[in-house]
Specification:
Blueprint lengths: L2 H30 L4 H5 L5 H12 L8 H10 L4 H7 L2 H4 L9 H12 L12 H9 L2 H21 L10 E2 L9 H10 L3 H6 L6 H12 L3 H16 L8 E5 L4 E6 L2 E11 L7 E11 L3 E2 L2 H6 L10 E4 L2 E4 L10 E4 L8 E2 L13 E3 L3 E3 L2 H9 L5 H10 L3 E14 L3 E3 L5 E3 L7 H4 L12
Parallel strand pairs: 1-5, 2-13, 4-11, 10-12
Antiparallel strand pairs: 2-3, 3-4, 4-12, 5-9, 5-13, 6-8, 7-8, 14-15
Length: about 450
């Protein structure tokens, strides 16, 4: 089967699927009022299978050379609709329209490629674009320019590092869903490449401060540290939201942001070098006062199972737990923030450790100073400090839900600005800087 024939066949499949789904939607709407709750819960055959059965009925495949296509159809019968729709979408089958570059937009592109080092990024090779221009091949010029622009755009939005350098960074980056090609085509058509590229850079004030410092830093070691932390900001979501909590394990600090403003900074204790605090994101859904502590199996092994009852430990259901109270390992407050690492922000009875400059004493969790004050700020007027203290005094475990989930980012930056706006360098507690590498390397020099 030739390419053209294959495209026509896929087009026929798409038309049948679309028309069949439209008819089914109308039927489903008319039937919906007659369904009861039991029927809603009953298992039903996927409508995707019905669509593909219709395809098999309508598409006549006259000889053996179409058997591979039938095998694909058979496979798709067992795949959920999202995956099926991907294969049956015409935009996947047909090549996208070429981006219409002009001499002016090509020149702006070359300028942006050349200035990549300002953002501690490698300079990409413009050779293929230059060669296409020399040949006067308009199609090749469009392809080379588009590929070059998209490579630069991806670096600015998502970073230049590979998977090995990002190992251990588990903050979900929602920017990966951005359709860069569509944005690029629109920007080129409007002669707005400057807005396109600048709009992809991290919007954080921290990134802007690092970028400014990087431009004026002469010391190669400090310059490399700045570059690495600029790269880490590219791994973060471009927008953290207007309300969120940001913990920087390297700085031993937590920040609360409301309406786009930093409203408070708290000292934190993080994991020891042997049990480092992971980098991840989660959502805070509530505040738990007077929490029980379920002792992790790793700590049970570490302490050889010695947990005396006089310290509030009880054994039940194969677990060792500690009763609520001021001596509880979680202190008097724990944030409800489900995550795969079972790492939480909580209070601690060991308040004296906050006086230390290097505060790496936990098994990975984040212990926060003035925990009840922090919790009150999180509740954002739903409960005041008097009410919080009254609940704590009862020693009964109480969960106070947040009206709206609050994003929390547990990050690791070895350079950044403090609450006073001054640039600071922090010790590389977990030796992660070396793994990040040098984001300015790995690209070919611009060849004219």
């Amino acid at each position: 089967m030739g390419i053209k024939g294959g495209f026509c066949l896929w087009q026929q499949v798409w038309y049948i699927c679309r028309s069949d789904r439209s008819k089914s939607a109308r039927c489903d709407q008319s039937r919906s009022t007659h369904k009861n709750a039991a029927n809603d819960m009953a298992p039903t055959e996927s409508h995707d299978v019905e669509i593909l059965d219709t395809v098999i009925e309508h598409v006549r495949l006259p000889d053996a050379k179409f058997k591979p296509f039938m095998a694909i159809v058979g496979l798709l019968r067992s795949i959920p609709i999202v995956f099926t729709a991907f294969f049956l979408t015409p935009s996947v089958v047909y090549a996208q329209d070429p981006v219409e570059w002009t001499p002016a937009t090509l020149e702006r592109l070359r300028d942006w490629v050349a200035r990549a080092p300002v953002d501690a990024l490698p300079v990409l090779d413009t050779g293929p674009l230059r060669q296409a221009q020399t040949r006067g091949d308009a199609e090749a010029v469009s392809q080379a320019a588009t590929a070059l622009a998209l490579n630069l755009a991806r670096m600015q939005l998502l970073g230049a590092a590979g998977a090995a350098q990002r190992a251990g960074w588990h903050i979900a980056d929602t920017d990966r869903a951005v359709d860069l090609r569509e944005r690029l085509a629109r920007a080129v058509s409007l002669d707005a490449l400057d807005s396109f590229f600048s709009g992809l850079q991290p919007q954080s004030d921290q990134y802007a401060a690092l970028r400014l410092a990087y431009a004026g830093e002469a010391d190669p070691d400090r310059r490399l540290t700045l570059a690495r932390n600029m790269e880490r900001w590219r791994w973060m979501p471009q927008s953290l939201g207007s309300d969120y909590v940001l913990v920087n394990a390297a700085a031993f600090e937590a920040e609360l942001w409301r309406h786009g403003r930093r409203v408070g900074t708290w000292p934190v204790i993080v994991g020891k070098r042997s049990t480092p605090t992971p980098v991840f994101s989660a959502t805070i859904t509530g505040v738990i006062l007077n929490p029980w502590w379920v002792v992790p199996a790793s700590i049970v092994r570490e302490k050889h199972g010695v947990f005396p009852a006089r310290l509030g430990y009880v054994r039940s259901g194969g677990q060792i737990r500690q009763k609520p109270g001021p001596g509880n390992a979680l202190g008097q407050m724990k944030l409800d923030m489900p995550n795969p690492f079972t790492v939480y922000i909580h209070d601690t009875p060991s308040k004296e450790l906050f006086a230390k400059e290097v505060r790496a004493f936990s098994h990975g969790c984040i212990r926060i100073g003035d925990a009840l004050g922090f919790a009150t700020r999180l509740l954002d007027g739903e409960r005041d400090r008097v009410e919080v203290d009254a609940i704590v005094a009862t020693r009964e475990t109480t969960r106070l839900p947040l009206e709206k989930g609050l994003p929390v980012y547990i990050a690791y930056f070895t350079a950044g600005t403090g609450a006073d706006g001054q640039l600071r360098f922090y010790p590389d507690l977990y030796k992660r800087d070396g793994r990040t590498g040098d984001p300015t390397s790995g690209g070919d020099a611009c060849k004219g």
